[in-house]
Amino acid sequence: MTDRASLLSLTRFSPARRRLLRATSAMTALALLATVAGPAATFANDAKKEGGDITFLIDSLGDTWIPNNSAISSFQGHIWGHVADKLLYVDADGKVSPWIAERWEQNVDATEFTLHLKPGVTFSDGTPLDAAAVVANLDIWYAGRKKDGINPIGLFPKTYERAEAVDAATVKVSFRKPTLGFIPTLGYHGSILISPKTLAQPASEQADLSRTAGSGPYIVESWKEGDHVTLVKRKDYNWGPPAVGHTGPAFLDTITYKLVTEPSLRVASVQSGQADVAYNASPQELSSLKDEGFTVATPRYLGFVNGFAINTKLAPYDDVKVRQALQAGINRQEIIDTVYTPDWKLATSFIQSNVPGATDQSDLLAYNPEKAEKLLDEAGWVKGADGVRVKDGKPLLLTLHSNPYLATSKAVDELLSQQLGKIGWKVAIRAYDVVTFGEKVKFGGAAVPAYEVTRSFIDAGTVAGILTNANNGENWFALDERDTTINDLRDKIAGASTIEARLPLLNTLQKYVLEQGYFIPRTQIVQRVYVQSPALKGEVYNGVAYASYYTATKSEVGQ
Amino acid sequence: MNSPYLTYAGKRLAQAAIVILLAYVFTFVVVSILPGDPITSVLRNPQNGFTEEEIAQIVAAQGIDRPVLEQLWSSLSGFLTGDLGLSMRSSRPVTTMIAEVLPSTLILATSALALALVLAVVVAYGTQVLPKRYGQGLLRAFPSLFLSVPNFVIGLLLIHLFGFQLGLFRVINPDSAWATFFAAVTLAIPISAQIAEVLIASLDHEAGQDYIAVARGRGLRQFHLFTRHLLKPSSLPVVTVIALTIGELLGGSLITETVFGRTGIGSLVQRSVSTQDLPVLQAVVSLAAVVFVLANLIADLVYPLLDPRVKLSGTRALRPSASKPAGATSP
Q: Which of A398, A480, B46, B238 is deepest in the core (most CB within 10 A)?
């Protein structure tokens, strides 16, 4: 009996004791650090940063591991970023720099590009990353192998014609039309370089992550579907992107991506020192986590802001005044204040402000309820006794379909419903799961006045094509061929052969789309939120807001 | 035992095969009539940037727009030749996916069943030996209490107490020994209640029999009486209940696995249902049918060993039903 009692008391008090131990060891380590800080620490060589294992808690590990079908996943992209390299590096400001391609040239029309590859790079299965391997990758990005269940990369330029290996280190790529977007696309998260041996395998084998060979700083040690992926560092890696300031092998020994679906459990595990990074914490928690000393990162990706693409075929949104009223009737600052934190930025255009070529159109996005009411009056919408505007017996209705890919989408919709309610709108909110959303909610759909966009891209030049119906474009505003101004801009942007010639055209496009109320921005989007232990430092966020721990180190503090 | 037994076993096996086949076809029909499919829903992710035209092309290339009957036929012929096909969601072989998660579920289910048995026997023993006034009434209330508390409530309580408060296991490492133990306890509690209920009823019945009064009169000690004379004849209906709860173990493991974050059959089913991954669902449903049918078959085969009075008359098994005490089967 006494034995059991003492055992019980031991287990009861052990966590407290462990916490005490942890705290004292942390303090000792801090004290040690403080003594070596200063000039000595800056000279510490890479060897001192070596080692360490981290656990990254993530809400999903996606569906399949076929590289083409999973590279753009908001979740699996994390793993691909460590397992595979890209031809070029694109940083958080959209700046393109060399990686596996050391340099590149283009012809005057931007229809032909030559890539010069870094020598001596190999995939983890031993295959050299040479011109032939690059050609195999370009081909499968463009076309996929549809019969086999291998999809093309959706945002790869559809103007691609062919690629050929000039010699072992030189690749020539041809396009049917000018394609300035090709170069930045090579740094896009879909464009990961995979061993041609892997690419030749059938889908069922490509789906086994452990059989896939990339050339990245980490290789897959083990994985279990719906559970975890453990990466171990590749010791002979020596071809990192110079832009991140380190090209040798990674410092951390292993990175484990562990699936924990409950957001509060992810954060609690980092708080209690059981894990190092929690992905996608809720925005409301962030400020208190910062106060507790955790690193909170809210990097923005290059792409569209979060907002609505308006269906101009559907009444009353076929009326430009109603669209403009919608544009002026949204208080965007209130969205940030209520739903988000100051880490979220006001939209200044319909593309994120860090995209090269984005221009500041804040004037067009100012909150002006008086103007909105006036526009609605002019358009013939009269306020009824219940505050809802009516025209020809029909209420002014806006149906919003909350985006299931963005956790905060519904909260913003609810706020918009209040804001627009004040000026006479009746807002209905529909929240569907991913499958139903995909079935029912489409750009220009018969019952979809506003499609909520979350979409990254690397090059602003591809935007105009997506908005219209040209070249397999997505016709976001259901304009078809009705608006000659936007189609004219689209053709000029597509035909531009230099970045400089394209800039003023992009500016005009942004202004026009917002003026016409085709796109109604909500906020700049932060789709990836990281909460990180203070012991982990030196990670780098790329142009699509994925964290790379290739350059990261972990100190003994905290654990 | 031989000739009627073989005919009987053959008939039962044929029935089992039909049940499994029907389960397979039924799953196919139910999932097929639902709107949407896993391939299209992945392609529709706005991040992909595919147009409807491209989506239609990819879908057509994979043959999921073929007539339903044609798809059923190819799926069924694969199933009959032992080829479960590829998952529509992950493109991995379904057999690999099941083999990957099966051990975790088996460990959970068997330890839960073992725990449930121990717990049930302890509770049932208590109802026989404790004085009527103290404790017995309380113990008799246990099964209904256990049955009425939802599985996930027990799981969350255990996680909170032993995972967070006492720090016995890390919540993010659900395959550790302690985490497995508490997951098994969660799953065992409602199952033990069902077993205990039947066992208690059966014990009460046997305890009133003359042979027990005789044994007691000979001065046998309670424990001896319980283990040597009472338990074996009372365990017949328990075998039936266990056979039935095997199915429940598979179903209940879904909730327990979710609560504890284990990656087993339950979580595979969950992922497959939410993405309408037909081949995986069909395989898991068939697996469950196989387990259920086998468990009941084994139960039938065990009866004659437990009670020599149980005989196979013709091709019908005289299996005691769970609700009736064992005595009802004696000829």
A: B238
**pTM for this predicted structure:** 0.83
Q: Is A226 on the interface with B (CB under 8 A)?
A: yes
Across the strands, what pairs with A278?
A: A57, A531
Residue A541 φ then ψ, to 5°: -105, 130
A126 touches chain B (CB under 8 A): no
B304 vs A233 pLDDT, higher one: A233
Compute the CA torsion angle A149, A155, A159, A165 (nearest 10 deg).
-70
> How far apart, in whole angstroms, are the C-alpha atoms of residue B182 and residue B108?
10
CA atoms within 13 A of residue A494's CA, in its CB half-sphere: 21
User: In degrees, to the nearest 5, what angle opens at C-alpha B202 toward C-alphas B200 and B208?
Assistant: 100
Contacts of B296 (CB under 8 A, 6+ apart): B243, B244
Amino acid at A548: S
Q: What's the rounded Cα separation, in Å, for the pair A441 and A443?
A: 7
pLDDT bucket at A22, cuts 50 / 70 / 90: very low
Q: Which residues of B, range 127-186, sit inside 8 Å of A by Cβ?
A: 165-168, 170-172
CA distance B92 to B277: 12
- Contact between chains at B261 and A260 (C-beta distance less than 8 A): yes
What are the angstrom distances between the C-alpha of A360 and each of A508, B156, B185, B199?
11, 50, 60, 77
Length of chain B: 331
pLDDT (0 to 100) of residue A437: 85
Q: Is the pLDDT score of B110 beyond 60?
A: yes
CA B91, CA A150: separation in Å to the nearest integer?
Answer: 10
Q: CA A235: distance to chain centroid?
A: 29
Checking if the pLDDT of A180 tops 50, the result is yes
**pLDDT for the residue numbered B310:** 67
* Interface confidence: ipTM more than 0.85: no
Beta-strand relationship, A228-233 and A218-224? antiparallel
Q: What is the pLDDT of residues A140-158, one digit of tens each?
A: 999 999 888 899 988 788 8
**Cα B21 from chain centroid (whole Å):** 19
For residue A521, is the peptide bond before it cis, meaning its omega torsion is within 30 degrees of 0? no
Give dist(CA B207, CA B35) in Å, integer.
Answer: 58
What is the pLDDT at residue A471? 66
Q: Which ranges in chain B are annotated with CATH 1.10.3720.10?
A: 98-311
What is the dihedral sign for C-alpha A267, A268, A270, A274? negative
Six-digit token pair at A468? 């219209």
CA distance B284 to B256: 17
Which value, to the nearest 10 degrees, does the dihedral of the CA atoms of residues A293, A295, A296, A298 take?
A: 160
User: Phi then psi for B318, rounded to 5 degrees?
Assistant: -95, 80
The CA-atom distances, in angstroms, between A392 and each of A316, A387, B69, B88, B243 are: 11, 16, 49, 49, 67
What are the DSSP calls for A80-102, one per residue?
Answer: HHHH---SEEEBTT--EEESSEE
The answer to whether the Cβ–Cβ distance between B92 and A474 falls below 8 Å is no
CATH tag, B98-311:
1.10.3720.10
How far is residue A236's CA from residue A121's CA, in Å, rounded to a whole number?
10
Distance from CA of B89 to the nearest CA of A (A): 6
- pLDDT for the residue numbered A48: 56
Residue A402 C-alpha, separation from nearest chain B C-alpha, in angstroms = 13
Which band of pLDDT confidence, cut at 50, 70 and 90, is reported for residue B3?
Answer: low
Average pLDDT over residues A85-114: 94
Q: What CA–CA distance (Å, rounded) separates B43 from B56?
A: 10
Residue with tokens 């092998």: A249
CB contact under 8 A, A64 and B89: yes
**Residue A155 with chain B: CB contacts under 8 Å:** 48-49
Chain A CA closest to residue B86:
A204
| Tokens read off for A458 | 């690397």
- pLDDT at residue B322 tops 60: no
